[in-house]
Amino acid sequence: MPGTLVAMPGVLPDGETVPVDGSLPATATAAVGARGFGVYVHVPFCASRCGYCDFNTYTAAELGGGASREGYADTVLAELALAARVLGDSPPPRVDTVFVGGGTPTLLPADDLARILDGIDRTWGLAADAEVTTEANPESVTPESLKLLRSAGYTRISLGMQSASPGVLAILDRKHSAGRATAAALEARDAGFEHVNLDLIYGTPGERAEDFAASLEQVVAAGVDHVSAYALIVEDGTRLAARMRRGELAYPSDDVAADRYLAAEAALDAAGLSWYEVSNWARTDEARCRHNLLYWTGADWWGLGPGAHSHVGGVRWWNVKHPSAYAQRLAAGASPGLAREVLTVDEAHMEDVMLRLRLASGLPLAVLDGVGRAGAERALADGLLDTDAYAAGRAVLTLRGRLLADAVVRDLLP
């Protein structure tokens, strides 16, 4: 999203430079964590690259010199020490959530993931009820490793299932077997994880309606309390995009994606999981991903790791992407930040509308200007906003509105 560029020497085309010491403006640190504070930890390692993935991840062959899994926890802890110095006079009152993502975080030894979490606790203090999540590929965990992670303080795990169809998994270049994700979910429950999420991707070329129905059946049978389901997005530069350009695979269909979404809503709702964000369903309020809710409601977070993004007090910055460059900057005592942007009032409003409208709690109509209110009235007339919620002063998407969420957002913005 666009940000305000400050005229200064060395300005990068997509943001202003980050000071060598990583320092932030006093206006940004005046009330850190007032709306909640989270820590994101990016682990950039993968055993292999999925054909659809354009995340900042690296296989061993892609990594090159200057970075390794073995030393990665120490490098992350070095950035954490820098973060503590930056927020030294205005630390957050507590850490409400920690989310370790990737990549495949569970390629790191459980002891390393435990050390990182302990470092965060020692630096800023975990809230007594902190939500601590790690992502995992199903084949990268065992009952023993899951028990170690749970004993280290991880309370939630998010497993990349994507599909129950062997054919769909093959197209996506996933390495786990069709039943491994749900087996891992049961193992996580047995290990004592309070909350378990399964991720699904729908709309893959060649996926049949019955394939997705089988995926939903397996998710429900696994008894997880959270499900994320996203339409396949074909990103430039991926193997999947290249195969589509060559005509080997058909491009995803918007109509098929809509049908799959409706199937997901019907199956998950019937199983007792309710939507709370357009692509996310939870069995209870406690099962909702609190870390993602921090993002969606404009709270503060510090992102540790190569390519990680952070946000504190209206200032957003992002780290250098390659693990070697990230490690080299920290070894030299410098911030790994590549660039940053300061959100204007208008930009912050745009993001607030875009993100909060996707939530089941919706958006207060009072935050909309005249153009936005006129757009909301059109959306209401078209059946895209809930009538009762609108009468109570909130813009809340209907099921049809969820299918057209991006269009509704555009209509609410100047």
UniProtKB/TrEMBL annotation:
InterPro entries: Aldolase_TIM, Coproporphyrinogen-III_oxidase, Elp3/MiaA/NifB-like_rSAM, HemW-like, rSAM, rSAM_sf
Keyword Cell membrane: no
GO cellular component: cytoplasm
PROSITE patterns in alphabetical order: RADICAL_SAM
Pfam families noted in UniProt: Radical_SAM
Keywords: 4Fe-4S, Chaperone, Cytoplasm, Heme, Iron, Iron-sulfur, Metal-binding, Oxidoreductase, S-adenosyl-L-methionine
Gene Ontology biological process terms in this record: porphyrin-containing compound biosynthetic process
An MF annotation (GO) of this entry: coproporphyrinogen oxidase activity
Subcellular location: Cytoplasm
Domain Radical SAM core: 31-274
SMART domains with a match to the protein in the record: Elp3
Recorded superkingdom: Bacteria
Record function comment: Probably acts as a heme chaperone, transferring heme to an unknown acceptor. Binds one molecule of heme per monomer, possibly covalently. Binds 1 [4Fe-4S] cluster. The cluster is coordinated with 3 cysteines and an exchangeable S-adenosyl-L-methionine.
Family per similarity comment: Belongs to the anaerobic coproporphyrinogen-III oxidase family. HemW subfamily.
Cross-referenced PANTHER family: COPROPORPHYRINIGEN III OXIDASE, RADICAL S-ADENOSYL METHIONINE DOMAIN-CONTAINING PROTEIN 1, MITOCHONDRIAL
NCBIfam families: hemN_rel (TIGR00539)
Protein name, per record: Heme chaperone HemW
Lineage: Bacteria, Bacillati, Actinomycetota, Actinomycetes, Micromonosporales
